[in-house]
Amino acid sequence: VQLQASGGGLVQAGGSLRLSCAASGRTLSSYAMGWFRQAPGKEREFVASISVSGLTTDYADSAKGRFTISRDNAKNTASLQMNSLKPEDTAVYYCAARNIAYSDWRYWGQGTLVTVSS
Q: Is the torsion defined by CA of 55, 28, 45, 8 positive or negative?
């Protein structure tokens, strides 16, 4: 599975961005999807995930109530809607895919930079 993340950019605090992840090579119908981020000088951290069906989602505490993960299996895409952005959300955001037969996130996109100015 090849993943291509897009949608990052510069936004003021309180603003919104929508990140998209397009998959190619294989259908996502057997993959959970996730978003992770890595801020400068910090380790990569989990942001959100969504099950194959889209019925189950999970969020980091920092994302709850502000971010919404979604997917469109027909279009082979996943998205992360980010609202009420804060300067501490500044990071490179990565989408990832996990085959339901495995427990690890094996496939990663190249990352898209989100910068939130105060």
A: negative
Q: Give the Cα separation of 51 and 72 in Å (integer).
A: 11
What CA–CA distance (Å, rounded) separates 54 from 85? 24
The DSSP symbol for 106 reads: -
Residue whose C-alpha is closest to residue 71's, from 10, 3, 15: 3
CA-to-CA dists, residue 85 to 18, 20, 24, 73, 114, angstroms: 11, 17, 29, 27, 10
**Average pLDDT for the chain:** 96
d(CA 87, CA 64) in angstroms, rounded, equals 16
**In the predicted structure, residue 27 carries a pLDDT above the cut 90:** no
Q: How many CA atoms, within 13 angstroms, populate the side-chain half-sphere of residue 24?
A: 4
| Distance spanning both ends of the chain, measured CA to CA | 37
Six token digits for residue 41: 């000088």
| pLDDT tens per residue across span 65-79 | 999 999 999 999 999
